Amino acid sequence: MNPWLSVPPALLAGAAAMTAYGATYPRSQLFGPVISHSDAARKLALTFDDGPNPAITPKLLELLTKYNARATFFVVGKFARQCPGLVKEAAAGGHVIGNHTETHPNLFFCGAQETREELRGCTDAIEQLLWAKPRWFRPPFGFRSPWLGEILHQHGMANVTWSLIPGDWRSKPAGWLIDRMKPIAVRAQAHLHKPGGAVSGDILCLHDGDYSRLNGDREHTLKALEYWLPRWRDLGLEFVTMNGVMGKAVAA
Ligand SMILES: [Zn+2]
To answer: CA 75 to CA 125: how far, in whole Å?
Structure first.
């Protein structure tokens, strides 16, 4: 049952603005702690959602290897079951695999039980392939709910949002996406080599898959990365996985 159905309409309406803010704003802590930045301006965390995707993920892994970059892949459980080799290949390459639910529902409309099952399904899929439970979770569509924080805590996972989400799920030319990813370089140029500059760095949310089906087209994401990866490297940015985002090394 959807728990929102049992809330009186007036109360629901009154709480709507606050709840919408808490459910979607990447930095909002209303529904439990979230990680939206790395702890140092030089650390850029590349994250990819909605895979694995046979049409894109292999090319993306190749591209990341070319620039010696490690990233975090928030996989959909059902796709991980269908493409186990891609998940294993990514993990073997030093990338980190995170949980993006089993079927990619909007968790804002899921009750506690359904939320728990969605998280457990994806964790099981990852654990069967890698013999380790994921430590990082990204909510589909960025939506959270009042019970998500407690369920994540029980599963030993931290909630990860982003500092930049350029919208690469849209069908747009690579040039459009390249432009939308510019803030990372602008911030790096402004803060990287100046004492007392911004201490936090970016968590970039991109997509190597399409949550609704396998083999979605994300060629423009590859092209935009082909453009930016060497430039980010030359600016002095370090590519970190979620395990390296918070200073002290976190055991995988
Ligand atoms: Zn997603």
So the answer is: 10
